[in-house]
From TrEMBL:
Pfam families in the record: TPR_12 (PF13424)
InterPro entries, alphabetized: TPR-like_helical_dom_sf, TPR_rpt
PANTHER family: TETRATRICOPEPTIDE REPEAT (TPR)-LIKE SUPERFAMILY PROTEIN
Gene3D superfamilies associated with the record: Tetratricopeptide repeat domain (1.25.40.10)
Protein's recorded name: Kinesin light chain
Amino acid sequence: MEGADAMQLRKIEDDKGRELFLQGKLEEAEKLFISALEEAKEGFGKGDPHVASASNNLAELYRVNKLYNKAEPLYLEAISILEESFGPEDIRVGSAFHNLGQFYIAERKLDEARICYEIKRRVLGLNHTDYADTMYHLGMDRVFKGENRKKRRKKGICVENCRVLHLQGKEKDSEALVQDSIRILEDAGQGESIMCFKRMRYLAQIYLKSNRFEEAEKIQRKILHIMELTKGWNALDTVITAEGLALILQSTGSLKEAEELLERCLEARKALLPQDHIQIGANLLHIARVAMLNFDQVRNIDYPEAISELDKAKDALHESIRIARCSLDKLMKQNRKIRSYGASGEVGNNGRVPLVILLQASDALGHLEITKKQLQGSKQSEHSSNIEAENALHKCISAYKEFVTERSIPESPEINAEYLKCLKHLLSLNSDSTSKRKQQSAGVNFQDLREEIKRLEVKLSPPRKRRI
């Protein structure tokens, strides 16, 4: 077959193969990719770049199917052909090594992935934006042992992948590569791109994880400033970014600014989202937590102000609980409607967020009632406050039984952790009560309560490493 005819036939087969691949018809796509590879070899010769392209397409399909033993030889064949055809410094060679590096990451062969990304760095150069992407990926996975950032740069070494560093727990090296990735994007005029925002958010998470709140705050302020200039407060992205900054400020004790930001976020969400949207419920929960922290600051110096902060927190928590409950009821109603048509409707993961918010807000409300009782310190209020605290905590149990025990929402570590807090607080509350109060406690079986706590603790505990 002549080269031109082979090219046309291979292009048709490649296009159809990609279409089938995107549709998830992998077996049919594989047949076409194999055919395209054979046609390329027959029409152009085994060492032609068209063969490299066809080999790479088939290798990618095998990678997705996790047929790694079939994929690797094809990646290597493509690289060999491209190096022979264009030389080791050609950008197409760098791209091929990138594909092989991604393949090795999927197999968790991180040393091999690192080598591939170093070659890509050499080909593209330090200031290429694609190399910035490489550093971000490598920074999340792995780094050279015993070498600091200056030594790596001196040797011309860079690890693609914030992902590789992150997977191996090398946060410092991951941080350095993410910072370089951001710098390259900013120098290339892409400092306001979605990609750069993603990098900056990841860097802020690194800082938060290591309790470097001041540095996290600076990054988050920078993101918010850009978002305000480019999108304004009529965009949810800006609201979410502002909320992230507010939570950092809350952690550092800058409660006034945190409260102001959260109030502004709430106002924006009410304008942008449907009534009783779960994001509004979450926003109210954050506001309640800040109010409780404000209360802690003034409880011993300004009694009226302390009560005012408690009342503000209580109102926000009640509204948060109402919205979360409303969201769950709406999901259950939709579920019943779907089932009425014979389909297997499930609330599933859609109910996870509102349920977690309901559990957190109910637990916080129980804690608030106990705190209020302690502040007032009168025998008259003790009985009433305990009942209100118990009622709030019982809402946690009822919600969990209704939505998780009945299998509407699958168990998750986050849900179980919040439920466990509620159970422990309820048990502690009744342990401090008189025997008469215990008898009046909404029919709680404390032995069952202890057994449920034990079950959840076992479920949430990390698996023990088996001894060899």
